[in-house]
Specification:
Blueprint (H helix, E strand, L loop, with lengths): L5 H15 L5 H13 L3 H19 L4 H18 L4 H14 L33
Helix pairs in contact: 1-4, 1-5, 2-3, 2-5
Length: 133
């Protein structure tokens, strides 16, 4: 029977991997991730590195990020089910990985007599009032 924490950790790990794989951070994260996924076994670490490289290459060619995320999630869930001890190193890596991933980019442009609105956090309410008569 699968532990109830496995799907959540696998999903978080897969999302983080796909999010960071095409960034500059990937070069430093990749070896640490392969080591964590290898669970102390050099052969497993090499296989994990090869799979990570395949994911990176697929995304670099314009492959589906969603498909890559699902594939990574399945692999991580299988790994965690087979070796629950891998959860600790994976959690540690993810804790450092999330802040390294780029945040959202917001670009707002108005031209001519246009008005541009943007919000960083929270909600935004815009009320247009007719000019006084």
């Amino acid at each position: 029977m699968e532990a109830d924490w496995i799907p959540a950790l696998a999903a978080a790990g897969a999302a983080a991997i796909v999010e960071v794989v095409l960034t500059e951070t990937w070069r430093t994260v990749r070896p640490r991730l392969a080591r964590a996924l290898g669970c102390g076994d050099a052969d497993r670490e090499r296989r994990a590195a090869a799979r990570l490289d395949a994911t990176a290459a697929e995304l670099a060619r314009g492959g589906s990020a969603e498909r890559a995320r699902v594939a990574r999630e399945v692999r991580l869930a299988d790994l965690l089910a087979d070796d629950p001890g891998a959860a600790g190193p994976l959690r540690d890596l993810l804790a450092g990985l999330r802040p390294a991933a780029p945040g959202p980019v917001q670009r707002i442009t108005a031209t001519g007599a246009g008005t541009a609105y943007g919000v960083m956090y929270g909600t935004q309410e815009i009320h247009h009032h007719p000019p006084p008569a």
